[in-house]
Design a protein that fits this description.
77% of the residues lie in helices and 1% in strands. By secondary structure, the protein is an all-alpha fold.
Amino acid sequence: MGSYKQNAFKYATIVAMGGFVFGLDAALISGTVKFITQEFSLSELELGSVVGAPAMGVLLALVFVGYACNKYGRRTTLMIAAALYLFSAISSALAPSYASLLVARFMGGLAFSSISLASMYIGEIAPPKWRGKLVSMTQINIVVGLSAAYFINYLILGWANTDAPWVQEWGLDTNTWRWMLGTEVIFAFLWFVLLFFVPRSPAWLLYNGREPEAIRMLQKVTPEDEIQAKINQMRSSLENSNQDRSMLTQLKEIFGKPMRVTMIIAMTIAIAQQATGINAILFYAPTVFEQLGIGTDAAFAQAIYIGLTSVVFTVLGLLLVDRIGRRPMIIWGMLWIILSLGVCYYGFETANYTISENAVSELSEIPNSERLNALVDVPFDSDISFKTALIETLGETDARDYSGLLLQKAADINALLILLGILSFIGAFHFSIGPVMWVLFSEIFPISLRGVAIPFFTLVTSFVSYLVQKFFPWQLATMGISSTLLFYAIVVSIGLVILYIYLKETKNMTIEEVQLALATRRKT
């Protein structure tokens, strides 16, 4: 591998490490849901606010990140994001109240814009043939971070349930969720330090009139005989754009007629990616698996399979994105997602829930478990009707605290079918629309608009993500798991139709060639 390839890979790896911190930050909260709900007596919407607070934070950050990355540079803005991750991790682990935890999580969300910035930076330094692979490294790091988070949560929960002296001494048994969230500190600090070794983006240098520095930077990541052509392409992209660089003017250009196809593609995929409900599954993984009636400890263990599946299929997608192409991976991947959600819907919709007399006698963990005698041998055909009966019988607090145990005793459900459906959904997402969206974002916008366009459409996907995270506990309590999954499948189906009509292939094209392809109305 030539030195320029080594440098491109090295810089992309460091920048993409932000994806690992993002994945860790996003998934660690999944293991704390039950603990923080009990400690702070949270309602469904309050719990959704805590889990979704980072998505709300990124909504604010993305309003300013376009300005920041154009004004101060991609690297400097990424370093600010790393510092925010670090601050958020420390504050979350030490949070004394619901409000302080909400604020700490919100501050971490300000750093979530690092995902779009990483895609932007890597897209600007990567050779065209490597762009898909290198940009997708961010998604690889996200899923590795997710896997690490699920494993860390499982490990800490296992230690907390032992009688080892050091467990009590360190407070793992009484502060389990704080230890889970606190592990992020190590990785956020490491990423912050490594970013000092990353050079500035050549596109940003040229954008700011610093062409000699841009050439020196390109010498590190581009063959010598291709540098001038690269400079000419970037200069041409800048000269052909609207020279009024205000954010409002750039947004008008994004929504203008010449970029209408690009806008439709970007808007649709930004909404559809999160409307799959992926973050409901990822951020509430143990809660989702509890619906299978397998118990809390087993639910934490099963969550690890989500992480492993994510890694395997993201790596597979990374290897094939430049071979298969963007369009086939997204179109067929979304169809795969819809079918997987349909399998899960069928599994949950056909489930039944009945508490037997023997089960009640075994529920010694529940205070005054004889209260459940009124429900003995009463069949319930949905999780909603069963949970409603539990609340009426036990009260809201006990029904919530012991829901995992009660579902384990009562559920008559095809758990294997649903588990396979969930893992199929996770695989489909991380093979297709998960990583490929960021590849497309790094390709379909001209250099002059990228600093505003990528954060803007990331803002859209982050807002949808926030809605999913915020309302999933409420949907679970009011709609039920089956209807919630069906809702996701319907929304994704609408997105699939739109992308089938408008999405064009962009593999192996320069960014300038992509602009020409999207400016025409020819069919792919």
